[in-house]
TrEMBL record:
ATP binds at residues 11-16. The lineage of its organism: Bacteria, Bacillati, Actinomycetota, Actinomycetes, Bifidobacteriales. SUPFAM superfamilies: P-loop containing nucleoside triphosphate hydrolases, TGS-like. InterPro entries: ATPase_YchF/OLA1, Beta-grasp_dom_sf, G_OBG, GTP-bd, P-loop_NTPase, TGS-like, TGS-like_dom_sf, YchF_C. Residues 2-253 form the OBG-type G domain. It holds the Pfam family MMR_HSR1. Gene3D superfamilies: 3.10.20.30, P-loop containing nucleotide triphosphate hydrolases, TGS-like domain. It comes from Bifidobacterium panos. This is Ribosome-binding ATPase YchF.
Amino acid sequence: SLTIGIVGLPNVGKSTMFNALTRNNVLAENYPFATIEPNTGVVPLPDGRLPILADLVHTEKVVPATVTFVDIAGIVKGASEGEGLGNKFLANIREADAICEVVRAFEDDDIVHVNGKVDPTDDIETINTELILADLQTIENALPKLEKDLRGKKIEQSYMDAVKKAKEILEAGRTIDEAASAGEIGKADVYDLHLMTAKPFIYVFNVDDNELANDELKAKLAAGVAPAKAIFLNAQFEADLTELDEADAREMLADAGLEESGLDQLARVGFDILGLQTFLTAGEKEVRAWQIHKGYTAPQAAGVIHTDFERGFIKADIVSYDDFVAAEGSMAKIKEEGKLRQEGRDYVMQPGDIVEFKFNV
Ligand code: GDP
């Protein structure tokens, strides 16, 4: 499954946040694919629709989609030069599909900052510089063979142009993700290089309570990383939340003036930047959110449930979540009102689709 790698300088609250995430863990029994390793956390994608559906179809079993986080220890200045943990660190990032960068904004004199002062912008630059330097190294290493392949007409000039463009962007101290968002380069054009800064980024600012309430500060920090997504959370508070039962946690959130936890926000945004979306099934056996890539067609989505469903795909009976709830889950009513759609092979799955696939075995 796709993973999000958590990176950041030492002492910014990564472990605190990761441990809170893993306490939020879903039951592994539902996820045979997720061999849970100590540095891997499989987190449920928060989805308030599932309990409502479960109520309507009278089932106890609810299976959410999940987001997988990997804690990548130890970025330091010089990581790109392969010092110490550097190589292992970079190898771990290469394996992740998206990068979650944790940045310290909270002030606490008892907790040493590696650079001597709390400066989120500076910290982001430190980390991104290491990733950018490593990507430049990748390009430097690839260039001699690419030049040769170009002379031998094994690659197109347009590919070489894209590689040179990527090099320029990196040399200017920018990530490919950012430049791609600005429309300056297509990620697909340099996909073969597997550059780290071409992965989607989320920034998590670990803030204290005062900062969390300071909209001006948050807007400023968010603008500094835009168009990448920024999330603001208090890692210590999130850790405390996960120690509570659901009712108490909800109360503590409400007392803090928050609608959902920072970890839930992180799971949601992470799922989205991985390019994933869900569709739903709702039956007596279980209510379930299935994860698919955005843009999947109905047969591809069917294949996520079972490969036989894809092979023998006939059609998909689909009702939207809103229509399902409006009809209180009555299929008779849904059909009567013409809200049940029959979709074929070319149908692209939409968020909120509740599906029953018809297939030949
Ligand atoms: P890591 O090195 O990035 O994994 O950071 P840790 O999670 O180990 O946190 C470093 C120290 O900062 C620990 O003593 C934490 O208890 C503390 N810490 C983490 N998050 C917060 C926070 O939001 N506020 C405060 N005041 N301290 C925190």
